[in-house]
Amino acid sequence: MIEFFKSEIDMIIFALTEIECPRTTQKLLGITKKHYQYERLAKKWRDEILIKIHPDRCRHKDASEACSALNEIHKRMTL
Questions:
Q1: Cα Rg for the chain, rounded, in angstroms?
Q2: pLDDT tier for residue 45 given thresholds of 50, 70 and 90
Q3: What percent of the chain lies above the pLDDT cut of 90?
Q4: Which of 1, 17, 28, 36 is 20 to 30 A distant from 74 in Cα terms?
Q5: At residue 1, does pLDDT exceed 70?
Q6: Cβ distance 19 to 62 under 8 Å?
Q7: What is the DSSP annotation of the chain?
C-alpha cells in the first residue's frame, strides 16, 4: 500500500485525515486490539507516529489536522 504514496508520512497523514472507514485507518496505521488493551503500547504507537508528522518537523499542509486526529484515536484507545 505504501507504494501508492510518495512517502510513509503521506500515507499516515492520508489515513488520519481522509479515510472515513475506521477499519481501513486501523489497518494502514498498524492498530491492533492490543493497542486498546495496553495503554503503554498505545502511547508508544502514538509517539512513534507523532515524531513523524508533528508540524514542527513535518511540512505537510495537513500535519496539524493529522496530529489532532492521531490524538483523538489515542484518546479512544485509552478510555
A1: 12
A2: very high
A3: 91
A4: 1
A5: no
A6: no
A7: -GGGSSSHHHHHHHHHHT---HHHHHHHHT--HHHHH-HHHHHHHHHHHHHHH-TTT---TTHHHHHHHHHHHHHHHT-
Grid-cell match 484518546, residue found:
75
d(CA 71, CA 50): 9
Nearest to residue 11, comparing CAs of 34, 23, 22, 27?
A: 27
Q: Give residues with Cβ within 8 angstroms of 26, minimum separation 6.
A: 32
- Sketch the domain layout of the chain as residue ranges: 2-77
All three cell numbers of 6 = 510518495
